[in-house]
Write a structure and sequence with these properties.
The protein is mostly beta strands. The protein has a 4-stranded antiparallel beta sheet, with no helix packed on it. Strands 3-9-4 form a 3-stranded mixed beta sheet, with no helix packed on it. β6 and β7 form a beta hairpin. It is globular, with a radius of gyration of 15 Å.
Amino acid sequence: MIAFYAGAKRLAFTYAHGGGQQVTRRKPTEVVLAPGADAYFIVNKSTCEVRTVAVATSMRVRLSGDAAPRQVSPGRASLGSLCSGPTTPDPGNTVHVSPVEPTIRDLFTS
């Protein structure tokens, strides 16, 4: 589960597993990590067609087996913005999420 927030408010994005312009369509597989190990995933969102109505300030992710979501730091990256425009729904309101991978390299293999 992944969700974007503006402050405490959850933003009404549509989430798609895989696909989009930069995210693989490969099906997820189980990734077993050693305690303290890192895991990686990509999120991709198109730009708003007309205007921005809210900007995401945080992202929460819950992995299988987690009792509660984890706050994920995007570093200096932009998390994206919720859109409003003439197209309903705005294509910029879909966030494509890759499968979780044990290495960054695995994110870019087909």
